[in-house]
Every structure is written in C-alpha cells, then in structure tokens.
C-alpha cells in the first residue's frame, strides 16, 4: 500500500499536462496509447493533436481512406499501428454502433490492442483495476524490488504482470497506472535516474545494492538483418516519375516508394546497370547518377536498410504517370520523405 500511495502522491504533484489526461473518452485515450507505443511523448503529441483535429470521432477515422490515415501517420513509424487503428475504428463504428468496448476482455479483442493498451483504456476510462506493464513499469518494478528476471522473457512478462496487478490501487486504478508510467518516464529514468530525490529511495533494492544501471535485465536481442536498397528515382522529360504502393505483409505495407532494386551488397553504378532488374525496368537509354554519395543506414527494430537513391533521367517511361508536383500527396516511409526534402532543396 505504501508503494502505490507514494507513487500516486508523487504523481499528483508532478504529472505532465497532456491533452488526453483531460478526458475519459476511450476513443481519445486509445489514440494516445497507440501513438505512444514505440514513440516518445514529445514526438507523439503533435500527431495526436493532428489526428483528433482531423478525426474528432471514431466515425471520422473509420470513414477515412487508409492512404489518408497513413499519410497523417508519416514519420511515426511502425505503420502497422496505423493500419490496425483504422481497421478497429471501422469495427467500432460499423459493428458496435460507435460504442467503444468497456471491459478489458472486450477491448483486447480489437485488432492492434494488446495487454498494455487494453489495461490502460479499461483502467483510465472504465475504472477497471487492470495493471499496465510497459517499459517504464518494468524499470520501476525491477529496480524497486531488485528483480533480475529478463523483462522480455515469457517468465518475466508473467511475473511482472502479476506483481503490477497486486500493487494497483483498486479504487483509482487509472491514476495508479498513469502514476507508475510517469514515474518511470520522468524520475526512474533509463539513464541517470533521480535517486537522490526519489520518494521510494529508502526501500529501493537497486539503490541499496547499487544495481540501478544493471536493472532491468533483457535477454539478448535477435540478430539484426542487413538489407541493401537501391531506389530508382525516375525523371522523365515531361517531369513525371514512378511511385508505387508496397504490397504484402513486409515493412511499409500500404506506403509508397520509388521502384526498388534490392541487392545482397552495396552496388556501384556499373553493378546496378548490369542487373536484370535494372535492364527490365529501363530497356531504353537513360542517364543515371547517385544522389547520396554515402549510403543511408535506416535502422528498424529487426533490420538495417543500407540505402542508395539513384536519379534516373529518361525521355519517357510507360509507367511514369505521376507528376513530380504531386509526389507529396503520397504516404511514404520517413526514409523516402527525408530524401524528397533533400532532393527538393537541391533542385
């Protein structure tokens, strides 16, 4: 009881002023929680304000084109979040008459919602005592209790959930959940935690045993895959290009890109022109130059993309139907958005 009371007392004095804290509307809470997965509050805030302005109700989001949703999400990354958000908005609007599910068991059935998000919505909006466990919570609990079970192991996930559930204030579960998350984000930080002014310092195991830097413990990450991307940025005489939607279940599904030639190593100009993919894409004469002299390394969670943008000038191309002036209308990965910004400056 001391643990939860201390955290809530700290929270009431130190909580962040955030727009979703001023509402119990599950639609807005849901939006904020999905956006803040894998995203810092400082970055997610502007997206939240943009989304709630453009889609003030779940019906507005449900009725939007997926391409519009992805364009507005551009820059946040992990685009499956946006696709799942859009899918679930349609379910809520069309199958549930706009009524957001009101229990953990029903909320977690929505696509794209896991234990953490379901617990957050159920506790904050419907006062259900469902404990949240995210990176901040893992860190606070592992340090305070001196737990060395890896937080990304099956055992650890179960152990920390049970512990968090036993600590939650059943009378104000939403406040407790927000308190422990804010405490982890602002006070018990990953680097340089504020132990000198910590209200839990007198009973923190990590502080007592000098384990603050070691906890929490994570199992070894999976091996990072290297991929080599060559984007063909086509410019025709009538100022047209090719930009195409990525299909399938891989990265950037539903986003747009320039024609891509993927290789098993970094290619120079001669290597690229000699590939069958290049010959098939450009049967007619072209002029080709490398835009970025140093390859761009774009890091995703499980893969690193070593990327080169090649400017290919040609008189015409049968598939070049998009005017360059319209290129900004398409939702693209941040990697390509950054290229377009740099390319526009050089033009």
UniProtKB/TrEMBL annotation:
Q: Name one GO molecular function term.
A: purine-specific mismatch base pair DNA N-glycosylase activity
User: Could you say which EC number(s) this protein's record lists?
Assistant: 3.2.2.31
Q: State the UniProt keywords alphabetically.
A: 4Fe-4S, DNA damage, DNA repair, Glycosidase, Hydrolase, Iron, Iron-sulfur, Metal-binding
Pfam families, per the entry: EndIII_4Fe-2S, HHH, HhH-GPD, NUDIX_4
Q: Where are the transmembrane segments?
A: none
Question: What binding details are noted for the cofactor?
Answer: Binds 1 [4Fe-4S] cluster.
Query: For the HhH-GPD domain, which residue ranges apply?
Result: 35-186
- Catalytic activity as recorded in UniProt: Hydrolyzes free adenine bases from 7,8-dihydro-8-oxoguanine:adenine mismatched double-stranded DNA, leaving an apurinic site
Which co-factors does it depend on? [4Fe-4S] cluster
Q: Which domain of life is it from?
A: Bacteria
The UniProt entry's sequence similarity note says:
Belongs to the Nth/MutY family.
Q: What does this protein do?
A: Adenine glycosylase active on G-A mispairs. MutY also corrects error-prone DNA synthesis past GO lesions which are due to the oxidatively damaged form of guanine: 7,8-dihydro-8-oxoguanine (8-oxo-dGTP).
Q: What is this protein called?
A: Adenine DNA glycosylase
Instruction: State the organism named in the record.
Output: Polaribacter marinaquae
